Amino acid sequence: MNPTSQFTGTTEYDYGYDENTAPCNEGNNFRRFKSFFLPILYCLVFVFCLLGNSLVLWVLLTRKRLTTMTDICLLNLATSDLLFILPLPFQAYYASDQWVFGNAMCKIMAGIYYTGFYSSIFFITFMSVDRYIAIVHALYATRIRTATCGIVTSLILWLVAGLASVPNIMFSQELEVEQSLQCVPTYP
């Protein structure tokens, strides 16, 4: 018996390319769902975060004196959250269609978004470290947990957040991808 004789019944496939073949359209249902669902979600998040953080800012600025480190941290965290959600209406329209706001707005919105993103992370971390110092090192905390120290630290954190977002500002640009304008980061 010939060892290759057992494979005589195999099927040959045609691997030729037919130029009249259309691409698969199964992803269109997801795109349609995404273009409907994401704008609604972004708008709801924007409205609730705008109301909640504006209320926090209003209470902190009008009803309370910013004398403690916690108040200063909350003020900065609410501000960074507002900065973080500011681009959401633009992203809502972008999710439903394409980026129509131009290259300058692409860079500005990326800068605002990432500055809010990084500053939120930094201020939550700062609040955690502040709470740790207040609880574990209570005697030492009374000397360093002053309003002046909180303001100086907040200014430094805002500066670091702004510097951390510079690469995102520089590399974000409006590009045409598959006959659609998109605001995307393009790294060298």
From TrEMBL:
Instruction: List the Pfam families.
Output: 7tm_1 (PF00001)
Protein's cellular compartments: Cell membrane
Q: What Gene3D superfamilies does the database record attribute to this sequence?
A: Rhodopsin 7-helix transmembrane proteins
The record's GO molecular-function terms, alphabetically, read:
C-C chemokine binding; C-C chemokine receptor activity
InterPro entries (alphabetical):
CCR1-9-like, Chemokine_rcpt, GPCR_Rhodpsn, GPCR_Rhodpsn_7TM
Where's the G-protein coupled receptors family 1 profile domain?
A: 52-188
**What membrane topology does the annotation report for this chain?**
Multi-pass membrane protein
- Signal peptide start-end: none
What are the TM regions of this chain, as residue ranges?
36-61, 73-92, 112-134, 146-166
Name the UniProt key words of this record, in alphabetical order.
Cell membrane, G-protein coupled receptor, Membrane, Receptor, Transducer, Transmembrane, Transmembrane helix
GO cellular component term of the entry, any = external side of plasma membrane
Subcellular location, principal: membrane
Give any single GO term for biological process: positive regulation of cytosolic calcium ion concentration
Protein's UniProt keywords contain Isomerase? no
Q: Which domain of life is it from?
A: Eukaryota
Q: Which family does it belong to?
A: Belongs to the G-protein coupled receptor 1 family.
Q: What is this protein called?
A: CCR8 protein
Write the lineage as a comma-separated list. Eukaryota, Metazoa, Chordata, Craniata, Vertebrata
In the UniProt record, what gene is named as encoding this protein?
Answer: Ccr8_1
